[in-house]
Amino acid sequence: MGPLRGRLIALLTLLPMPAMAGVCAETRPDWIAAEGKVGVLGEAVYVLTSPVGMVLLGLALLALIWPRRWLAVIVALPVLALAGLLVLSRQAEVAVQAMAEGCIGGIWPVVVLLVVIAAAVLVRGFNRSRGAP
Predict the structure, then answer these.
(1) Cα–chain-centroid distance for residue 116?
(2) Taking the model in full, what pTM does it have?
C-alpha cells in the first residue's frame, strides 16, 4: 500500500459517515433530540402502541376474557416471539448506536411485561373453570 493510499484511508476514516451520524434519523424519524433520551417507560409505550403491539394486546385481552386452550397457545406464541425479537434486535450495531444517541430506550421491562402477559394468557387458558366447555 502506497503512502497516498494510506493517507486517503486515514482521511476517509475521519470523515463523518452516514451510518454513524444520524442513526436515529433512520430508526426513529419522529424522535426529537431536544426532548431528551427515551427512557424505559417511553420505550414501553412505543412498543406497546405500535400496530403489532396493539394487535397482540387486543388478542391477549380476548384470550383472558374468553379462556380457551387453543386461543391461549395462538396468542402466547406471537407475544413471546415479539419479546424474543426485541431482545435480538437490540444486539444489532445500529440499535447500540441508537441507544447511545438516546432515541431507543431500555427494552428489558417491555420484554418482562410481554412474558408475563403470555404466561397469564396460558395460565388462564389452561386453568379455566370445570363447567366451561
Answers:
(1) 16
(2) 0.76
pLDDT tens digits, 62-77: 999 999 999 999 999 9
Q: Compute the distance between CA of residue 110 and CA of residue 124 in angstroms, rounded to an integer.
A: 21
Angle at which helices 108-126 and 40-48 pack, to 10 degrees?
A: 50
| CA dist., res. 103 & res. 28, Å (int) | 7
Q: Output the nine-digit C-alpha cell for 117.
A: 402477559
H helices of 15-129, where? 23-27, 40-48, 51-65, 69-89, 93-101, 108-126
d(CA 13, CA 11): 5
The Cα–Cα gap between 31 and 24 comes to 7
